[in-house]
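Rotation project, supervised by the postdoc (A.L.). Task for the rotation student: set up a whole-complex structure prediction and record inputs and outputs verbatim in this book. Inputs entered:
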Amino acid sequence: MSDELTIWTYDWVPQGPRGFVRDLRLRWACEEAGINYAIRTVPFDGRETNHLAEQPFGQVPFLNDHGVELFESGAGLLHLARKSDKLMPRDPAGEAETVQWTIAALNSVEMVTVPWWFLKLCGDENNGLTGWMGQRLDHMERVLSGQEWLSAGRFTVADLLMADVLRVSDVRAFGDRPATEAYVARVTGRPGFKKAHRDQIGHFEAADRTREKARST
Amino acid sequence: MSDELTIWTYDWVPQGPRGFVRDLRLRWACEEAGINYAIRTVPFDGRETNHLAEQPFGQVPFLNDHGVELFESGAGLLHLARKSDKLMPRDPAGEAETVQWTIAALNSVEMVTVPWWFLKLCGDENNGLTGWMGQRLDHMERVLSGQEWLSAGRFTVADLLMADVLRVSDVRAFGDRPATEAYVARVTGRPGFKKAHRDQIGHFEAADRTREKARST
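Outputs recorded:
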């Protein structure tokens, strides 16, 4: 058995989601923690039904850590965080604070930003979630005005996830929140993010070339 | 220091949310695990700003476990699950499966059901999230048609949370999904849910009487 863990993503996606497919979260966490990983793929075409045994909502990523399998990027991040104190402190208070902010990113912030964004992409920019969206982002702006990192006074997996939620361009453009903007720049300025982002873009560009070649032969 | 942990909720809420305020999730988990707990309150009036130091989005619940403090019901559940194998198995595969389904409840199911419900309550029943809502609930119906519990072949904190997400009456009434309905009935039929639910209702009814008394004197 190799010493790598495996992150599964799509074999190809259109331009739009490139740089945002959530395997990036797991790549980034592995880069921060110094964990070796391999990338494997499932077909984008037929994703609605083809890999439901691995991911019951037809999505990516999912993770295989030497036989321990799990889907949901948030669950993958918490799993990786238990493997490395670079992602989460080991003391109970620091761990609790990190887990709470990780869940806050998923269930208090992204639970509003993603549906808001979905409705906007469907053409409904002034949708019914707009007021709620503003409230949640204002709360985050207040928090981030007072501290550099979300928990334990240093970078953790909670920052990785929260910055990934907040870096979506339509979310950044929603109002003027300088502390949030500085936070997103600070967290995504880390070498681990840059490498994970570059590698994901490269992965899908290579898939373009493979598709192109298949088409021309 | 007492051997209890403390769950914080509102001192009072209107009729509508009673039985659904999320302190119920933590009460229920404590009941399942046999963990002693005390209930303390913050005022419902002024909740938007009065307790932001304890909960940065102005919500409840939050938890104090002998000095370890955390907000977000999902984070509280994962914290409690680490204290008792009645909530989460101790083997790596069982733990990973439980965490993944806990996160799925928060970020793949509730991320759609709550915003959909919010828009419905605002009067927009056929809102832009309706198709997505149907897809997610269909995926859950397929999963629940094949298994009684979400992970490890037995009740875990993932079932507690998923059932709490799915038991909302408007969500239950959205389409006809018999396996989901049977699952919700099975999980919420547990004595731990019934006690937690009864205690929350009783807590707010007592608050009615206190308010009534204050008004009449």
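Student's summary: Strands of chain A lie at 5-10, 37-42, 62-65, 68-71.
Supervisor addendum: Chain A has two domains: 5-85, 92-191.
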